[in-house]
Each structure stands twice: as C-alpha cells, then as structure tokens.
Amino acid sequence: MSLRFYEIAERNHRILNPFSSEKLMWLGDVCRLTPAIRQLDLACGKGETLCRWAQAYGISGIGVDISPVFLQAARRRASELNVASQLDFIQADAAAIQVPPDSYDVVSCIGANWIGGGTLGTLELLKTKGLKRNPDSLILMGEIFWRQEPPAEALGAMGVKSGEWAVGLEGIAAMFESAGTRLVEMVLATDTDWDRYQSKHWWAFDQWARQHPDDPELESLAAFALKSRQDYFRYERPLCDWGIFVLRLAD
Which of 157, 180, 202, 243 is deepest in the core (most CB within 10 A)? Predict the structure, then answer.
C-alpha cells in the first residue's frame, strides 16, 4: 500500500528525496564524474540521478526499481534528455538482482535503505553489487539520521528500532566506518529541501483523491497520507536530518 501511495503522491516529483536539482548536480561535481564512469543505481525511482548525470557528465549505467510507474517515468526522462542510449532501467528487486562482479565505478542507493533491511544491510549490498575493487570506486548512500537522541515516542510512531538510525553526523560516520568504508564527502538536505519534498506529496495526493472518489483504497491511502504528514510535523522535521554520503571501501 505504501508503494502505491508514493506512486500517487510523488507523481509531480522528479527527485524522490529531500534533495534539490542544484544539489544533485553539486553531488555529481563532488563525485568527479566523467564519461568513463558506469553507475548502478538501486531503487532508482524515476531515474533522475542517472538521467541528469548522463546528460551533464556523459556517464552510463543501469537503474533498478520495483515500481513500473517510476520506471516508465525514468525512461521518458532519459528520452527527453537524449540519454536513453546510455542508460537501461530494469524492474526488479534491487536486493535480489544478480550483477556481474567488478562492473561499476559507482554503486548507489539513495534514500531506500529498506532494500537491505537498514543502513548496514544496504551498505553490505552495495559493496557486493558489482562494485569495482579499486581505490576510485564510490558508494553513494542517501540516509536519514537523528539530530539528537530520539524519544521513545518518536521511535514507536515511526516504526524505528533503537539504534537503527545513527545519531548525528559523528554517529553516521562511525556507522559507515564500522562496515569497512570511509566517508570522503557528503551533501546534506536543508529544512527547506525537506519541506519542498514532503509538501509536494500533499498537493498531489489531494488532487488525486478528488479525481478518484470511488477508488477502493482511497480510505486506507488517505489514512496513510494523514499519518505521514503528522509524523513529519511531530518527529521528522524537528528531529531528523538527511544527506547523501560518498563512501570508499576501506584499505
């Protein structure tokens, strides 16, 4: 049900995370991308990262996602930006897809750490999904983390276990290092990035609900939408940060 909600609520989004277009390109500069780079993006959503980077830097790569709705948008975007020949989009379980070893210079999962059951599990996936074993290879992770130790109320409401999300930048850096990677760069979201990402859901879902009053899932989807907004006001906005972290394998 949550996938369908996001397919509806994010129909006006291009970037399915609290990240601006400007920061996406800034991140590309940070990663020193060139036409020689090949990227695997797991849970790629609408493929905006791959499409924009293919256009601006000449990279090639593959995006994997479970949503046919998002992948249709990704293929349209690739055609719109004239980079369809550089990219391929595959509908599959990102955790289960088989990838040839030593195939990609960059392996990423931006804001979908559920594919590996959390930050550390997803990081282990990224380390083994075709990443080239050389000093210049990069892992990109989009991750949420607490600004401060959260109250038990927030953990319960958001369905997060104690210790599942790191506390502070020092905490998330330590988490990455415990998994055999080094944090070498980062680009963080601002409160405005969060607000623009979240509030676009509200308009899109409200419009859809008015257009589809007889949808059999409307009541449950509306309840999910309401809880999502309440959790944002009560917990995510005051307590959470988000960013994309650039990692290398530890020596």
Answer: 243
